[in-house]
Design goal:
Elements lengths: L1 H10 L2 H18 L1 H15 L4 H23 L7 H25 L3 H15 L5 H16 L2 H10 L13 H6 L1 H4 L1 H12 L1 H26 L9 H12 L12 H46 L4 E5 L3 H12 L4 E5 L2 H9 L3 E4 L5 H6 L5 E6 L4 H14 L6 E5 L6 H7 L3 E3 L1 H14 L1 H11 L5 E7 L21 E8 L16 E4 L12 E7 H14 L2
Parallel strand pairs: 1-2, 1-4, 2-3, 4-5, 5-6
Antiparallel strand pairs: 7-10, 8-9, 8-10
Helix pairs in contact: 2-6, 3-4, 4-5, 5-8, 6-7, 11-14, 12-13, 12-14, 20-21
């Protein structure tokens, strides 16, 4: 083995050996699951605002920044205790340094640059270009090093070097580090950045008027006013006046100067109004985005969420029912007015287009169990169903949709809808029922609208509960003030009566007494809400 290794060294130059080792190491990192998990963890820790550990890390760093600034400021005129000095230098500064290096590390993947060059060299049949790789790596890292936040991080480390007290001036940059850990400040800066063109134009206008005002007052008052001795004094006065601050340390003494003061004050009021309108409009535009982010964060904290696409009249009735039952749901619609209407009722509502993949990515479909597509446009409903099914390939999500035309029912089912309801057909059946059997209609209406607390509900047969393994005839529903409508069998079950064949996924209306209930089956009962809820409670408690 050793002889083979020395023979390889003789046949291979140092540079070739280094390149081969570099490529081998790059492929090792690329195939290492552990390395990827570690790097992904630290990337999320530094950049992912939804990562729970990042929130803890940001709070910790926020505390360290404040403590370090307090120590350094106190040390300017006081003697700091050696323990605090060591804490600042060895612990806080070290943490800042480690954070800087981690951010530099996770900014990009060096091994991917090496692998890309290796594959390109093999494909083109040329030698591996080490200089090109090193240059690209350095450029990528330099791209991060010269970014504003990276510069702030680097300058925040310098005050820890105590032999050079001049570095103490950089203590202010530790305060700038707070921008990384406070989202509200970042939001404010982002709003200003979106209006940078308008603010830049305003800055040019203010600078121009300030300089002109300073030059004019200098001409009028240089020989008459003892407080204006230089052009700088004149420009300083002009800026103070145009900002409407008016310290009063410099006041004009000539009539021309007083008239100029009034003109500059009027300009100043106009500039302030213009700046206010720019910032106000920017925050108004940002407000909708902030609301959407808040709704998305709310959905991520929910469990078993229903997604309601389109806030139609049918959706409004459905939302009222879910709200009463305390079922988590989120309403999505493109119409701003409908979203406001849903929000005013206390619902979680979000403006967005369900047919767009980017919008679907913002929703956590791991938490969404059912989707209701309830717009009044069959074409829109079909596109929504297709988009959701295409996005949720790995999850068999249940979709219930509305169809305004019976001809579109089959199309929606082919698109991926689990159930399709035609409101017009249901309405027609109810009207026919009312004409032929008015008393029966009253009963149906009372159940559907929950008048007098009469409801129909589903109860899941839980394992080891009072229903598991029991025959229908053995359960005294009358004692619980309930009426059994039927049973949905989700798996095969033996019967005392062998002549009846049990089918999986079949609903048995008015089931026979010898039908056995198994865990996972669903029974449908009717009764007063208090009776149904109490029976549910008994089933859940008995399964524990």
């Amino acid at each position: 083995m050793i002889k083979t290794f020395f023979k390889y060294l003789k046949e291979t130059t140092v540079s070739e050996a280094f390149i081969k080792a570099l490529i081998a190491f790059a492929f090792f990192l690329d195939s290492s699951v552990k390395y990827k998990k570690i790097k992904h963890f630290f990337w999320r820790l530094m950049n992912d605002n939804n990562f729970i550990y990042k929130k803890i890390f940001d709070t910790f760093m926020f505390f360290l920044v404040l403590v370090s600034v307090a120590i350094l400021l106190y040390d300017i005129k006081n003697r700091v205790h050696p323990i605090l000095e060591d804490f600042d230098f060895y612990f806080i500064t070290s943490i800042f340094l480690v954070e800087y290096l981690i951010r530099l590390w996770v900014y990009n993947d060096i091994h991917k640059i090496i692998i890309d060059e290796y594959e390109e060299a093999n494909f083109l049949g040329r030698p591996f270009n080490l200089k090109k790789v090193l240059k690209e790596i350095l450029l990528k890292k330099w791209e991060y090093i010269r970014s504003p936040f990276a510069i702030i991080d680097l300058l925040a480390i310098l005050p820890g070097y105590r032999p050079l007290r001049i570095f103490r001036i950089f203590v202010i940059f530790r305060l700038f580090k707070l921008l990384r850990y406070t989202k509200s400040i970042n939001t404010f800066l982002e709003v200003l950045a979106n209006k940078r063109f308008e603010l830049f134009i305003l800055l040019i206008a203010v600078s121009f008027v300030t300089f002109i005002g300073g030059a004019v007052i200098y001409v009028f008052e240089a020989h008459a006013n003892q407080k204006i001795e230089t052009l700088f004094d004149a420009v300083y006065w002009s800026l103070i006046t145009i900002s409407t601050v008016g310290y009063g340390d410099i006041t004009p003494v000539t009539y021309e100067g007083k008239v100029l003061t009034m003109v500059l004050i009027i300009f100043g009021i106009g500039f302030i109004s213009f700046a206010t309108s720019i910032i106000a409009s920017a925050f108004t535009e940002k407000l909708e985005e902030l609301k959407a982010e808040r709704v998305v964060r709310t959905v991520r904290h929910m469990n078993d969420v229903y997604l309601i696409c389109g806030y139609s009249n049918e959706a409004e009735i459905l939302c009222e029912k879910f709200y009463k039952e305390k079922q988590d749901f989120v309403v999505v619609d493109l119409d701003e007015e409908r979203i406001k209407k849903a929000s005013l009722k206390g619902y979680v509502a979000l403006k967005g287009d369900v047919t767009q993949k980017d919008f679907l990515k913002t929703l956590d479909f791991e938490k969404i169990s059912k989707v209701f597509v309830l717009t009044n446009n069959d074409i829109s409903n079909s596109f929504m169903i297709l988009s959701i099914k295409a996005f949720c390939k790995e999850k068999d999500i249940e979709i219930l949709a509305l169809a305004n035309d019976e001809k579109n029912v089959s199309k929606m089912k082919k698109a991926g809808a689990t159930y399709v309801v035609v409101p017009t057909a249901v309405t027609a059946l109810l009207m026919a029922e009312y004409i032929g059997h008015p008393i029966t209609f009253e009963v149906i209406d009372a159940i559907l609208t929950e008048k007098k607390n009469a409801i129909i509900d589903e109860i899941i047969v839980l394992e080891n509960s009072i229903l598991d393994g029991k025959l229908i005839g053995e359960v005294n529903f009358d004692a619980y003030k309930l009426i059994l409508f039927g049973v949905m069998k989700l798996k095969k079950s033996p019967l005392l009566n062998e002549t009846l064949k049990i089918e999986k996924g079949h609903f048995y209306f008015n089931p026979p007494f010898d039908l056995r209930l198994d865990a996972g089956d669903i029974i449908v009962v009717m009764g007063y809400s208090v009776s149904v809820n109490y029976f549910k409670y008994l089933v859940e408690r008995s399964s524990i």
